[in-house]
Amino acid sequence: MNEFKFITIREPSPDGTIFYKIQFNKKYTLEEFIKSVLSRNEWGTITVGDFSISYSGHTLSSYILECLYNRDIKECYAYDSYGEMNYEIVIDDTLC
Questions:
Q1: Does residue 80 come out as left (phi exceeding 0), alpha (psi in the -120 to 50 range) or beta?
Q2: Strand ranges (DSSP E) for the chain?
Q3: Distance CA 43, CA 72 (A)
Q4: Are strands 84-91 and 73-81 parallel, antiparallel or unpaired?
Q5: pLDDT tens, 29-81?
Q6: What is the C-alpha separation between 60 and 38, in angstroms, rounded?
Q7: Within 10 A of 2 (CB to CB), how many other CB atoms are there?
């Protein structure tokens, strides 16, 4: 069961994009969140600081620095545009 939910934060844009704040019911590390996203069988982009990575289905297009995986997520926002789910994640520090 997911320990987070999508809270709509503003009206959909004219092109149908919906914007969300992710509300967590527990602390999530970046690794836990990415595994949960990949289990949803979506496609889009995950952005952490200046680093972005595409994903599709259960697969990331490249790797994320291992030193970031255990960082706790401070905030997370998402937007859904025509089925493309994009996440913007804030962690304590993106430097390894």
A1: beta
A2: 4-8, 18-24, 42-48, 51-57, 59-60, 73-81, 84-91
A3: 23
A4: antiparallel
A5: 999 999 999 998 899 999 998 889 999 989 999 877 788 888 999 999 999 98
A6: 8
A7: 14
SS3 4: strand
* pLDDT tens figures, 70-82: 899 999 999 998 8
Q: Which two tokens stand for residue 79?
A: 């937007």
Residues 46 and 89: beta-carbon distance below 8 Å: yes
Which of 42, 36, 53, 35 is closest to 94 using CA atoms?
A: 53
The tokens for 15 are 């092109």
> 3-class DSSP state for residue 95?
coil
